[in-house]
Structure formats: C-alpha cells, structure tokens
Amino acid sequence: MRADLGVSASAFGFALALQNLTWGLAQPVIGMFGDRYGPRPVLVVCASLYASGLLLMAWGGPAIGLNIGAGVLAGIGIAGCGFGVVLGAVSRSVPPEKRVQAVGVVSAVGSVATLVIAPLGQAIIDTDGWQTAALSFAVVAATIGVIALFIGGKPAPAKDHKAVALNAREAVGRAILHPGFMAMTVAFFACGFQLQFITVHLPTYLGICGVSTELGAIALGVIGIANAVGSYVTGRLGTRYRPKQLLALIYLLRTVAIIAFIWFPVTAFSTLAFAAVMGFLWLGVVPLVSGLVAKMFGLQHFNTLFGIVFLSHQIGGFAGAWLGGVTYDLTASYMTAWVSMAVVGLCAFLLQWSMDDRDHVSSGAVRDSLQGTI
C-alpha cells in the first residue's frame, strides 16, 4: 500500500495515528449520544461513516484517502462501532457483580472476530490488492449499520445512586475532580502507546532484525489468539480481585515483556513468545477499566466517561504510531521507541497501583470539592 501511494513510513504512520486520535476525540461525544439516545442511531450513523472512510481510502489518493478517509472518517466510525457504545449496552444489561466478566466475554468475542477478519483481509490483499480489501471491509462496515437497526432503542433510566440528578456536564465535572479517575485516565495513555506502536511497527522492526516479514503477520495472529484468552480470563479475575491492582499488574508485566524482548536477540521463538505474552495482556484492560468507571460513577453517563478515559488511550496510540515512524525515519532504528514504551509502562503501573478507586460519593477529594461549592 505504501509503495502504491508513494508515501514514507512517517506519513503512513501519521494517517494511522490520526485515526487513533480522531477515534479518541470523538469517543466522549459519541458516548454522550449513546447515553442519551441508545446504541441504535449511533451505530447506524457511525457504520456509514466507517464505510465511507474505507471507500475514500481506496480511491481518494495519498493525502485525502489516507488522512481524511482512513484517518478522520474511519476514526469517527470506529468510535461509534467499537467498544465505547457497545460496552455501555452490555454493562446495563447485566447485574453489577457480573459486569466485568460480561465485558471480558464481549472483548474475547471481538478478538476471535479479529482472528477471522485479519487473515481474510490479507488473503484479499494478496490476490486482488489492498483497494479490493478496503471495498470488502466497507461492505462489512455497512452491514453493521443494517444489523444495528434491530438493536434496542434508548437506554433504561439509571437506578443506581451514583448518577442520580446529574447531567453529562456535571458527571464529567465530578469525574475530573476524582483523583482516581484522573490517575486511571493518564495510565491508559501507556496502553494506547504500547499497543499501537506494536500493531503498526512490529513487522518492520522484525524485518530490520533479519526475521522474515511473514513472521510479523503470524505474531499479530498469535496476539489475537492470546488476546481472546486474556480478555476472558481478566474478566473472570476482575470479579474476584480489585480491578485497579489487576490493571497495574498488566502494565507492569507488559513493561517486563518489552524489556526482555529488546534485551535478548530477536528470533522466531522470542518473537512468538513476546506476541503470546503481549496478546494475553492486550485488551484485558478493557473489562477492568469499564468496571472501574461503572463502580465509581454508575451507568447513567457510562459511555461519556469511558469515552474520556479512552481519549487518553487514543492519544497514546497517536503518539505510538506516529513517533515510532518518526524515530525510524530519523535514526533508522526503533530502539528509542521501545525504551519509551518501557518507561511509560512503568509510570502507568505506579499510577494505577496507587489510584483511589472509591466511588465519587465516597471519594474525599470529590466530596471536599463539592462541599466547597455549596
């Protein structure tokens, strides 16, 4: 695709980084609409935008096709068709003690779907070209909009005390005043930074290290398989142990895996072992973060608040995808990016482990701030 369009690694990385940033910026707004109107209209509109972005990517040229199609339109589309809105609907449909587990199951199913879609897309690219693959996935995106027509309408009114009598602006204000919410949000930056760098740049890095490029595709497949298992297991563990501590351990284990991968010589075995470990820890954060948001603030404005946390994740994804390409173009090496991933992962561990995970009614900082306004 880069050869056909005649773009550099940094330009291609910027387009994917822009997609992640747009996804993140759109997520709180789309989440607010999901909280107010339910998932159906959000999914229909965003699926249409997603399909349009893929079509524009295929035939819009390097500037418009990549940046506007794959970057902006697809980014908005993914924000509405991805986890943010769907997890809100799932969380509202199960009792509180089952929320983390239910979200883990949904995340695992999404990972299994990726295992089917990714090799299918690669097969289409190999036989008919990347533009045909983009057209095929545009049809899939449009199908999401059709299926969404049969999904339920507006969400039921919240019944928990944590969200009573709050509009969206008030809920966001309380969340920003909550030190634990802000710590979790900042820590989530590391997640996006690490995962998006690996997704975009791992195949190129393996080629530099003398490993076959086909191994990069296999490694991403291993990540998908391990991700399905890890998401389910993490969801189960989240019902037994404190989610904040599980999140912290995920960030720490990722950091250890990254350091080990760059410390030892890169081989087929080390690559697949790294992929298996990172895959197991890949989206296990989603049920834990969503569970903490619901625990601290209830479900009335869940989509909006999860969208704010996810914005930090996507800013990290933007940095990981783009800066990875920039460092490679400048130095012909990815080592600076790998070291940066280890540093931000360690910072995320420290933030997450020490966060205040009490609900907004019990949190002293929020309570004191609110009393000061009376």
TrEMBL record:
Keyword field: Membrane, Transmembrane, Transmembrane helix
UniProt domain Major facilitator superfamily (MFS) profile: residue ranges: 1-360
GO molecular function: transmembrane transporter activity
Pfam families to which the protein is assigned, alphabetical: MFS_1
Domain of life: Bacteria
TM helices/strands, residue ranges: 42-62, 68-90, 102-124, 130-151, 172-195, 215-234, 246-266, 272-293, 305-325, 331-351
PROSITE patterns in the cross-refs: MFS
Protein name: Predicted arabinose efflux permease, MFS family
Native organism: Mesorhizobium qingshengii
